[in-house]
């Protein structure tokens, strides 16, 4: 009957020496050489402390049903027509206001509770002699992110387009993309930009000036912009037909950058340190076994119980 | 004879590895000098840094001579402490100088490596010489 090794276990041998001996000094140096170089290696090869990270989330975007429209006509005296959902703005512009019909519908294609698209249509009634050459349109949204910090802001999509020939319809099709100049926080509530883009309660004309609205908006560190560089103009308007503006805006999945928290940073630093430490521990374990076993430094080897027993027997 | 036969070849190998890298640095010192100077420099500044590095390398070679003399003559070949000390320091030096060459470190770092890994073992070697020849003590 052949015999197979079923079980084995290591027997420990310990080496003793005084605290002020060469052996103790050797051990102190080797321990320092085991634990400090991995830190140096991990640090010098960059990326030890995670300073910025990214994650993916689909934001919760809702159209606020606030619209500001300016349509430039083809006369040389700079005539324009305007309409908005702000009563004060309409009062300030008096005769230039042309009441338009607006229809908006949001769609949740994948039924996950977050809207994915906005279908917006605006019809601006025109007299047969009026021709539209340029359009400026602001639509406002509420934008919310919840995975890391609870980030809520009021943002806008600004469409500006002009065409050399009088147009009949304008079709805009784009995504509402997030622009970050600064990473977001990893926890807490962030409502710095939860302020309406256009202050509807203000009575001052300067607050409805497109230039100052845009200036204040782009000062923000986190904004949204509409990514459509080529709105499509259709020409050949029938005499009594209104000018139609069709806007389709998608709310895509965003990759958002943020400052990682303390534990996330420590976790990644620890992974890097320990994986290099394992190699150093293994190497210096072999060196220590060689040095102590061969008495390169003088120590007193202590035998285990079994060897002691056998010594007494023989 | 000392009881450990593995220490002598290890010491020889680490000494030679360190020596080879120091000689290599004589040829590749241009990158390191450029790393220590600002992006636009005059040829005077270059020559000054160059002569400093060449001085350091030459002194290293001199200290190597002392240590190799002590090793080959048998004065410290079988002394376990000196062997271990020398192996550790020259190993660190070989690794650091490999980084020095590949990562183009500044010339000032060479002085640190020089102090710890060339001056120290040569110093202990000289102490061994004194112990053996002057104080007439056996070295192992």
From TrEMBL, chain A:
Pfam families: TM231. It is a multi-pass membrane protein. Keywords: Cell membrane, Cell projection, Cilium, Cilium biogenesis/degradation, Glycoprotein, Membrane, Transmembrane, Transmembrane helix. It is found in: Cell projection, Cilium membrane. InterPro entries: TMEM231. GO terms for cellular component: ciliary membrane; MKS complex. The keyword Membrane applies. GO terms for biological process: camera-type eye development; cilium assembly; embryonic digit morphogenesis; in utero embryonic development; neuroepithelial cell differentiation; regulation of protein localization; smoothened signaling pathway; vasculature development. The chain crosses the membrane at residues 23-43, 268-284. PANTHER family: CHST5 PROTEIN, TRANSMEMBRANE PROTEIN 231. Transmembrane component of the tectonic-like complex, a complex localized at the transition zone of primary cilia and acting as a barrier that prevents diffusion of transmembrane proteins between the cilia and plasma membranes. Required for ciliogenesis and sonic hedgehog/SHH signaling. Part of the tectonic-like complex (also named B9 complex). Interacts with TMEM107. Belongs to the TMEM231 family. This is Transmembrane protein 231. It comes from Sarcophilus harrisii (Tasmanian devil). The lineage of its organism: Eukaryota, Metazoa, Chordata, Craniata, Vertebrata. The gene is TMEM231.
Automatic annotation (TrEMBL), chain B:
It is a multi-pass membrane protein. One of its GO terms (cellular component) is membrane. GO terms for biological process: craniofacial suture morphogenesis; detection of nodal flow; embryonic digit morphogenesis; neural tube patterning; non-motile cilium assembly; protein localization to ciliary transition zone; regulation of gene expression; roof of mouth development. Pfam families: TMEM107 (PF14995). The keyword Chaperone does not apply. Keywords: Cilium biogenesis/degradation, Membrane, Transmembrane, Transmembrane helix. The chain crosses the membrane at residues 12-29, 53-72, 84-105, 111-135. It is found in: Membrane. The keyword Glycosyltransferase does not apply. PANTHER family: TRANSMEMBRANE PROTEIN 107 (PTHR34341). This is Transmembrane protein 107.
